Amino acid sequence: AQAIHKRTTCNVIRSFRISSMHSPLHFGSRAAINPEEMMLPANSISFNDTSVMSHKDSDGDSSMDMDICSTSSSDSPVNIDFCGSCSSGEEEVIEPSLKPLKRHRQSKVYDQVYHADRDKSYDRRPMQISMLLKVSKHVSGIANDTEWREFGVFSSVHNKFEAMSLRNVLPAFSPSELSFFTDMELYNVGDLSRSNTNALSIHLLESLNFRKACAFYAWNDGKPLRDYLRFSVARNTVIKWKKTLTKQFQQGSKDAAKNESANKKKDAESNKYTMSPAEIAEKVNNDVGLTCLLSNEETRILRDHFGIETATQLINASPHMGQTLSEIMAPRFDGRSLHEIECICEGMLYSWLLRSREAIESAQSTATRMETENSCDTISEERAFLPYAKFLTPLSYVDFLFFEQEGILTDHELSLIDPSLLTRQYAAFLRTKGEVISHVDTNKKLKRLLQEASLVHSGLSNVVNSSQNTRLDLGKLPKGVMLSASNLCKTTIDTNNNGLPMKTLIVYDDLNRVLYEFSVSIHDSSIPNSGLGAFLTFKGAKVLKKSSQAKVKNPAKSYRTPATRNPREALFAFSGATVTLTGTNLHGDEYLDEKEKEDSVGVWNEFSQKDFVESDSNITFSSKHVGCALIELDRYAPLLKADRKTEFIFCIKDFLFGHEPSSWRFDVSEKLNVNGLQNQVVDFTDDATGSPHAVARANTAMYVNECGHDISLVENVCSLETCRSVSYYVYIERPMEAGETRELLINYREKYEDIRERRGYGLANINLGMKGDDDDVSRVLRNHNERIPTEATIMSCSEDEIQTLVDFIQERVLGGVIEATSQATISGADTDILARQFVARRRIHWISEVCRRRLLLLINSQEDDSSSEDDDNSIFQKGMVVFVHGWMDKHDPRPPYTGLSTISSISKDKFDRHCFELSLPKGKHLTNVPAAVLTIPEEADFVGAPQRLRASHLKSQRDRNRPQVRCKLLKDLSSMEWKLSSMAQYLPDLPKSIQTMLLWEVAEEVLFHASKDNDLMHPPKEVVAKFAKLIEKNDLAKKSTNSFASFYDELCAIARQSTCARDS
User: Fold this and answer.
1) How far apart are CA 26 and CA 173, in angstroms?
2) How far is it, in rounded angstroms, from Cα 68 to Cα 47?
3) Exposure string (b/e) for 240-259, b if CB count within 10 Å is 16 or more?
4) Radius of gyration of the chain, Cα coordinates, nearest whole angstrom
5) What is the tens place of the pLDDT at every residue in 655-694?
6) What is the mean pLDDT of the chain?
7) Would residue 737 be called left, alpha or beta, if left means φ above 0 and alpha means ψ between -120 and 50 degrees?
8) How many Cβ atoms are within 10 Å of 718's Cβ, its own excluded?
9) How does DSSP assign 890-927, residue by residue?
């Protein structure tokens, strides 16, 4: 590289002379390439040992000679093989000025290659015992290959292959490559295969011949030198060398296995009628005989001297066996010291144990073996000599794939990278995953990862987490939702946690084919006075096995999800419904679907849970990672059909139970057709208690707390509404590591402020000192202000709406409230719920009074719609739906009509009989129809009739039955009463807290009547303060029932003193 730079500066480069030479190329020799060999595709250049580029400048300086093979364009990985520098004609020495400058290397970074003495030759190099016995306490001296082979060190195919000289590997390495191996002290196959790929790549990157080859390759393509002179190119070259060894090893293994199989078959034929005790044990215990693992001499020694015939017996042998073996083998090593003999025997024994353990592991069941072979800890044969990436630094799976692709496999290597050199490659890699990121942001992210890797490598466990926003920007949340393995996501009852729910969440990243597993558990919230909370724990990531890659579905690139698979919006008016199409071969992509199983995973159910294994690296999860998005936690509401109500009904229920249900409400867009289209509200509170019902308590979404205005609390849950339901989704911004737990929190924003103020953590509570509902005076004042619009709403209701309200209270509320408040004993009951039910029973009484007043007003103001007084004797009224039996006027040419019709007018003929004018479908009419041909229609007559006729008929029926309906309604209102005299009978036996709640409820009613009928002369707060003093000094538990009457009189007296009309 320096030579190219020097000659470019001097502008003395003339031309390159290309010639052919058939002699093999050696380091320092002169050679050239054949011009025909240069005619290669534009995207690849290949040179071999007889193909070298050479040139001289006018000064006679020699140029470089290179050997480049298996290369490609700069857009793909490049492998470079190099040879020495030379010129044409004769061997010459490279000028000192062209040699690369030597730089000091840190030994802890680069000295990771196995070393040996430099004076060892290729042809025969004794094996060092320290390389075999990694944990030996001895330091070996000089050993002999013949002795090692005789006693089993090289008895297996693998060990024989490792002892092979690198000169004997086919296809042969070039002389320049062998020269580099000599410099790196790599002499045989074992040295090269065990060498650290990254460390060897760094040495290769620093070698002069490699730099020359890169410089020529860059000049030949007309591209910058930095595209070729980089670590990834050097590493790909080392990988190519090791793959060469892998291919030869596989071929040797196949030949050895073939010979071994033939020998076994021959031995089986000769011994098929006999079976030794060792073979019997092998059949019973899945053991392995030593004859399959060791040489005959080794097997004889173990059998005769130790009685060991199987691998299991050898593994379980006495730890003092090495000393006995040294005594047995001493005569065979005549002339050696006892120390050397002990070292040799220890190596022999260690080699036998290794092969025995490998044989036992391979004899396990097929399922276990397949699981082990496909796990992340097992390296496939294709990567037999390559290290496997393993990080403790928190990384997303996409980052992990990128660093593995770039040859960065450890935290140490990651901490040494230069972010500026990888910025462009990283941004390009992310673009292949569908994420566009600027180079500035890419560089910042790489710097952050480098800092975290440095901390992890230095031994600091607490990595500094990046800052995050504590509030979600709902407009920027990802639109997609991660695919959940629905059959694997289950909610169970945790018997060890007071019967609270616990949910397992397993979501699938279809882009990268990764499974993320979470669990949601319920514990005490980290927010003070917030009760229970939901906590999300990240269990870890599982990656797809290599053996399961064949199951991947690969639709055409033009594939798009059919529109029929997506829910469609209904187009008819006033509907928020969605339409889902189903059928056979409806979508056109059914051929991709696999039959769903219990553990099915994937868009097409193509995988099972067994196809994934846990990752060894610290793979994190964030909704911002490529391939990740929102996680569906659970449906919030509705969970039961009764959870859907109109806004009017819900407001009355919320008033009855002290505004507790409003803490759990959500509004949805779909309208309910109850007395006309009305707004719909969903919640999951019980209609008899106002607290969450049993189904909601078994759902994890109920326990997600609200973060409010505390900016230190991180919002990580958002609610997404459909037209009729609400679901919770988890959004994780800061990555979660395996084993990390976070509390799930949601922010309801401005619409929840009234509830925050009642609970004491609203802005008015924080900034203005307003008190919550735990303060009696503040609670009564809020309830007083809420009672006014509640009465106004009821007083504006129609008769049908009052009927709907009374039916709801009678059927859903009153029975449960009366049952709870009428028990002789209330021990063991929840005091808060019971107090709420006592208050609800009194408020039901107040609502019954308001409904009665409104109903009487409607009855008194109703006008008689009859056309005449005589019509009262007719059962047919104007607007009524009737059934006509074969009638047509005699002057009308149309055939007689039979069917439904509506009375449009009533008259009388000359005989004083009723005649009717009827309106028929399609705008037709009948006149002068006598009452004799008309009847009231039955249910069967409405089959196929328009819906409006049925509705009109029902209305007519209600009008005819109106007196009976009103009578029943008044009786229902009477049953809802709970007068003060009845309530006073319960007070002495109730707990103090419930007594106080009921007394405050009565005081609230008195305040409402006083402020409604007469103007208060004093502010309501002062009046309530006087009520508080009166309630505080009254102890009804120690007094008779009549004491309540005196208490009520005192309340009324305080109210009279505060009004303009003292006599009211």
Assistant:
1) 11
2) 5
3) ebbbbbbebbeeeeeeeeee
4) 45
5) 999 999 999 999 998 888 887 788 999 999 999 999 999 9
6) 76
7) beta
8) 17
9) TT--SPPEEEEEEEEEEEE-TTS-EEEEEEPGGG-EEE
